[in-house]
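Researcher: I'd like a candidate sequence for this fold, 185 residues long. If you have to choose between options at a position, lean toward the conservative one.
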């Protein structure tokens, strides 16, 4: 019975640490279309989309986020360079990357605070859970082992929740930066 609980606990810990953006999907496995009250596209109306005269400048300066196995990269422009990374334990200075947009800088500070506390809590939780797991496999009949494992899982889940909040702040920081960049052009 205890091996089943340990297996389920490890599976939960792994699933919370490997957070990835999820897409809404239909029953056939294809991405579901976004629901909106009104959709208007220039090409759907038979009108060619207009390009701003300095649209190339926006395309080369706008930021986007790409995700690779738990690590996120911040890329400038459509085919531009990687200007920062955000992993579980290491991140770039996002406030410096989005400098020039006050709201984006505020979201970047929220990202930094949430990311640091989430990463530390997850690491300590994994360590505590590991100690509890080792104590359990040594067949010690100690009351502290379930407490260590439960406390470790709780810390992992709390840290994963903070990391999720941090990545949401990162996304909002990039959005605000791009919005303000568009209005400056």
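Model: Candidate sequence:
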């Amino acid at each position: 019975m205890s091996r089943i609980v340990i297996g389920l606990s490890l599976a939960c810990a792994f699933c919370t640490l490997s957070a990835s953006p999820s897409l809404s999907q239909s029953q056939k496995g294809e991405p579901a279309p976004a629901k909106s009250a009104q959709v208007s596209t220039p090409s759907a109306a038979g009108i060619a989309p207009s390009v701003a005269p300095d649209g190339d400048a926006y395309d080369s300066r706008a930021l986007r986020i790409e995700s690779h196995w738990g690590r996120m990269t911040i890329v400038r422009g459509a085919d531009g360079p990687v200007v920062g990374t955000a992993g579980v334990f290491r991140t770039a200075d996002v406030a410096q990357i989005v400098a020039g947009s006050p709201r984006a800088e505020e979201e970047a500070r929220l990202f930094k605070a949430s990311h640091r506390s989430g990463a530390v809590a997850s690491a300590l939780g994994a360590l505590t859970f590991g100690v509890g797991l080792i104590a359990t496999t040594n067949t010690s009949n100690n009351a502290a082992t379930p407490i260590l494992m439960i406390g470790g899982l709780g810390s992992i889940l709390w840290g994963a929740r903070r990391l999720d909040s941090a990545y949401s702040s990162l996304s909002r920081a990039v959005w605000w930066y791009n919005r303000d960049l568009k209005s400056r052009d």
